[in-house]
Every structure is written in structure tokens, then in C-alpha cells.
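Backbone geometry:
***
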Amino acid sequence: WRRVAAGVGLGLVTAAAVLLFWRPSFDGRALLLIRQYPEAQALGMQNKLSQLSQLVPNLIGGAQGDEELATELALLQSRAAIGMVVDSLRLEVQPRSPGRIGPATIVDSLRLHDLFKPVKFTLHAGVNTIPQGTIYASSTLPAGGAYVRLVDREDAITDLADRLSTKNAGGDAVEILYSGRDSTTAAQVPNLLARVYMLRRTTVDRGLNQRRLEFLTARADTVRRDLRRGVDSLAHLQTASGAGVDAGIAAKGIADQFANVQAQLAQLSASQHALDSLVSLVKSGHTDPRALAGFPDLLRSAAINDIVGSIAQLETQRTVLLARVAPTAPQVTALQHARDSLTAQLLPMAEAYRQSLARQRASLQTVADSLEIQLNRLPGREAGVVKQEADVKQLSELDAGMGAQVLQARLAAMLEGGDVRLVDTAAVPRKVAFPRPVPTWLVGLLGGLVLGLLLVPIAGPERAA
């Protein structure tokens, strides 16, 4: 019984030491809804689907749902997003005495050097100048100040990443869990991380489609204004000259052919100018070569689609790997080099396609000039009406085509990136997650009892003799 009592006493002493000296932690939880829309990816590839893919729409993006969600989980834990949370909440400062208070409540702002070893010192209200930088403490600090531990930004990011975890809570729901040193920060970190993630998706993921939509909208407005002027001019010309709609079979045939050629020329010209501006931006370094992959005409090439798919796969692998290792790791560097090598192949292909567009445009321009000469040989009154009708027809077809492209781009801009919402915000916890008094005492008591019972069969020296 002495050994049992000693084991129980040792367990209770251990429990008391844990309750007295173990730094308490608080759990914060936020729930994020990340809903992917495979239809957004299907819009750009609609013309390249086979009959089997059209009959089975679930094949489009359905098998990539889990991989895309795993990518989003990795992005949530990326050091870039965590770094923004650290900067906002001033997590480089870790209060020790008084404890259980958030760094943002005692520090207004700070300017620190990039790398230094962790230090401990007393923080006073006002400006605190130390070898590691300058800290502007809140005026609400008590006269004695606050004893804090200071780490550099990289260590603060690593510390937050170790305390943070994300997991799939079921379906499209993602749970963000954080174990903080104080109740306030435990709620602030998941909420702020979710908002940073949603902001980055809105400004980065939807940028390409939004720019494409703006370009097509401006072009469609120009075509619509030209069409209205053409219709008015045609009506005025017919009234003034007395010419009817029927200007002869020969004139009609030439005019229709001329209108078709002009429509093709307009489409080629729009594609060539758009591609020229995009290639110029890439060459000047103002945008990434991967922006070329979003050009609609280039997506018709199987080689471009293969390269874009490989780049996306490498980027996914690199993002997932960055959640576990540092950006300078050999695996990350190898994936980055492979991605850059594939990205560099997009610009030469775009150049070759631009030259092909120029040759097609020159060939069609020759045909258009020949047809225009034939139209000019017709009687002046009939030729004027026919040419104006051809212009109106061309603008009508171009307006219809531009309207369809604007609608497609608008849907792509709306659906790209899916629907991301913060469903459940993290609330300030009222109780300590660990150590809690009652479970700690029970574990200490049961552990000590088990230890004492294990010591009972061991024979003492006198009994062994």
C-alpha cells in the first residue's frame, strides 16, 4: 500500500506541476465553404469535347474535385497567407507576463530586422528601441510594463503554422483550427486567415477572365455603334437614290462574298491585335507568360492545352509541397524550374501563331481587294446600296458573335474560382483547451494509481533475502 500511495502521490504532484507551469492554450475554429464550379472550366473547352464527354458531363472536372480541394487546403496554410496574418496581429511579440493577452492589444506597430535570435525583455508603453528594431507599445500598458518574448518574422510564421491545421470537414466545407496562447488571438487567427484567403482568390484567380470580359465588352460596344450608323446610312442612301434592296443576282453574290471575307478579316484583325498586345506585355515583363494560355484562339491547339495542363499540375504539386517544406528546398526548386521551362514555351508558340494570323489576314485582304474592285465596276447607284448592305450584314454578324463571346466571358468570370464563404466565424473561447483542471487531476490520479500497482509485485530487499 505504501507503493500504491507513493504512485498516487507522484501522479497528483505531476498533475499539479502541469496545471501550475504548463502554458495554457485556447482553441479557435472557423468553417469555410469552398465550392468549386467545374462548369467554369468546361466553358472554355466546349468546342473540344467529344460526344462521349457531352453525354457524361460528370467527367469534366469531377475527378479533379478532391485534388482541387487539397490544393485549396495547402494554399490556406501557405507561408504567404500566414505571413499576412502575422503582420496584422503582430505575432512576433509573445506576451509572457501578464499572460493570456493578445499581442495586438499591447503593441501598436513594430519595425524589426529580418533575422535575429529570440530575445526576452520588458516592454514599456511608448517607443521601445532595441537592437532587433523598434516597437511602439500601447499607452494602456501598466507602469511596470509587460515581459515579452520577441522572435523574427520567419520564426513567427513557423510557430503559427505549427499551431494551425486545416482539414476537410465534409463535402466542400473546410475547417480551420488554431491553438493560441490567448483567447483573443485564438479567434482572430482563423477569421483573418479565411479573409486573406478569400481576398487573394478574388484579386488573383479572377483577374484574367475579368480583363478578357472588359476587352470584349468594349469591342462589342464599338461594333454596336458602327452597326447603328451603318443602318442609318443604308436607309438614307436608299431613300436618296431610290434603289431597292434587290440590286441584281451578280451584285448580291459578290456583296455576300465580300461581306463574309470582311467578317473573317475583322475577326482575324481583332485576334491579331489582342494577341499582339498580350505578347508585347509578356515581352516587356508586365505580365506572366501563363496569361497567354487564357487567349481563346490558342486554346484550340492541342499542344497548348498539354502545356497548360502540365503547368497546372506542377503548380499544384509545388503548392502542396510548400505546405511541408521551405521554398528553398530542392524539390520545390526542381518543380519551379520545370514549370518555368514549360511556361517559356508558350511565348514562341504565341509568336508562331501570330505570324500565322498575319499570313491569313494578308491572304484574305487580297481576296477582299479583288471583290471590292468588282463591286466598284457595278453601276454607282446599285454598287453604293449593295456595299452598304454588305457592311450592315457584316456588322450584324460581328455583333452577334461578339455578344456570344461577351456572354461566355461573363459566365467564366462569375464562375471561375467557385463560391468561397466564411460560414462559421471563430468565437473567442471561454475555457482553456489545455490543461483543464478536472481532466488533468483525473489523469494524474489514474496514472499514479497504475504506477503504484505496477510497483507492488516488485519484491523488496528484505523479502528477496
About this structure: The radius of gyration is 35 Å. The first strand starts at residue 26 and ends at 35. Residues 249-284 form the longest helix (36 residues).
